[in-house]
Amino acid sequence: MKIPNAFRITPRQIPDRRGSFYEAFRSAALTEAIGYPFRIGQANYSVSRRGTLRGIHATSLPPGQAKLVTCVRGAVLDVAVDLRVGSPTFGEFEITHQDEESGVSVYMADGLGHAFLALTDDVCMNYLCSTEYVPGTMIDVNALDPQLGIPWNLTCDPVMSDKDAAAPNAAEAIAAGLLPTYDECLAHYARLRER
Question: What is the pTM of this model?
Fold first, then answer.
């Protein structure tokens, strides 16, 4: 993707008369792409109704929490956002259409934020996370921040949690010292390579 340390994974589908098969995740291939092992510490699922907007979510360093996200039911507009202060692509985003048929996944390294809009009812998203969730480490940035300008193409008010609706915009998150720096993230990636 145009954001460093974010990758879109499009599997090769093998169809036959029963349906199809595809390989969704291969550790060695992802390790080669990102430059260090992606170890799975936790797996999560979220289920959302049409019009639900979740995010922008990230995790502070330490501990960090890289994610591989996949839509396993329904369809979403999935967004990766660079929240690393000082990054050459800070504040930029990349949109991926994910749905249950394609098997497309998005990998986001530590320091990148994630959000999605449910385009269908009963959307189910799978998150493979590099570390277990640690209370108090979640970073929230408002997905409707006009300075980020993510084109959600909303036709009505989205369904959001109170926490997401009240999240600071990117400028407020920077002023409050909530976002990691690009240098902190690069040092973190280097430590992961040494493990």
Answer: 0.95
What is the per-residue pLDDT for 195? 83
| Amino acid, single-letter form, for residue 129 | C
Q: What is the pLDDT of residue 98?
A: 98
Domains of the chain: 6-194 (2.60.120.10)
Ranges of the chain whose pLDDT falls below 50: none
Q: Quick check: is 127 catalytic? A: yes
Set 36, 107, 114, 127: catalytic member:
127
Please report the pLDDT score of residue 157 as a whole number: 97
Among residues 57, 107, 114, 182, the one annotated as catalytic is 57
